[in-house]
Design brief:
With 137 residues, this protein is mainly alpha-helical. 74% of the residues lie in helices and 0% in strands. The longest helix is centred in the first third of the chain and has 48 residues.
């Protein structure tokens, strides 16, 4: 079991890294699509104005707005998903570091330590390796 834990967290961290790279490519692709949509929209609206068709201009404008809004929504969802995998990778890395070296990225509560309290220092409630530090993880 002891040799399985580091491999498990390493595998999960690598999976997160793969997902982050894939999502970053998709985010960049959708950003490019948004730029191309705006450029094509301006060209389409200009052409519709050149023809002097109000309905065609209005239809082109509505189509561009709807397409752009959909692309923004999709881009936002991908960005949120990438943040999720970045945070998950961070948590898996923390668990691996905690298992291998006993370190923890979360606060140990040292600012709340009160040496004057009769039980605080004796029970190791706050500080490195304390109850707060373990529960905060």
């Amino acid at each position: 079991m002891k040799t399985e834990m580091p491999a498990y967290y390493t595998h999960r961290s690598n999976h997160c890294e793969t997902a982050i790279r894939k999502l970053t490519r998709s985010i960049n692709r959708y950003a490019l699509f948004r730029l191309l949509t705006i450029i094509a929209g301006f060209i389409g609206i200009y052409q519709a104005l050149a023809v002097r068709s109000v309905m065609l201009t209005f239809a082109a404008f509505i189509l561009i707005v709807i397409l752009f809004a959909w692309l923004v929504q999709k881009h936002s969802r991908l960005y949120t998903e990438r943040e999720y995998f970045q945070n998950l990778k961070l948590v898996n890395g923390n668990e691996l570091e905690n298992y291998l070296h006993g370190s923890n990225m979360y606060s140990d509560g040292a600012p709340w330590s009160d040496d004057k309290h009769p039980y605080s220092s004796h029970l190791d409630i706050f500080g490195p390796g304390s109850l707060f530090h373990l529960l905060n993880r």
